[in-house]
Amino acid sequence: MKRKLKRFLNNFKRSTLDIEPTFVDIPVKGKKFAKLKILHLSDLHINKKTSSEEITSFIETVNKQKVDFAVITGDIIDCRVSKIKQKLFLFKNIRHRVYFVSGNHDVFYGYKELLEVLDQCGVEVLDNRFSYLVFKGNKYILVGLGDRFSKYFKIKRDEKALVKEIQKKDSFKIFLAHQPKDYVYAKKAKAALFLCGHTHGGQIYPFHLLVRLVQPFLSGLHFVKGMAVYVSPGLGTWGIRYRFFANSEMAIIRLIKK
Description:
6-stranded mixed beta sheet; alpha/beta; globular
């Protein structure tokens, strides 16, 4: 009984940014697109209680990873940017190319100021735009969609225009958004891979059940008519700094031949 109780309580963990990566293999069509490696980060939720030491250790772990580039699918911050600006400037020490799309907390706590900081750190913001990438001689399109809450803060988000612009482009498309429900736009854009976060994997059981009422996916890998969908449970937390039956994650996405 004591052993069972201990195993049960081990699922109740304090959240931390500095964890070892999880490797996720995703099969895709086309041998030439295989072997691409993407560091997928999401939901850091940096706030006043997040120490500079924790962020520095996290960045050191990120820099050790052998990947082609990194993406952050929203919610870097969880308080006003002015309160944590110096901590956020530590992101300039990341050695990988980093692409970002906004989450609901980002637009709520200071979208414009956050984008200014990220620009100075060399992080490319892909809200409602796309970028061409070339790795190992192969051409990719990395597409980003700003968060659904943008409209409540008078931040433009034109899903239809973005989808229309890229759906006929003949390249391997990777679509980024914060919320899983935006997979519908990735599908319309004929993306091969959709990466998102937002759910925290439920964070504290049984809130998993509530998340599933409003989102099509909770966490992990899914397939929708040939398109791979990967939902990161994220690194940080919202409300309290604990998780229960929902581990934090830093994922290395490895594309492999289908």
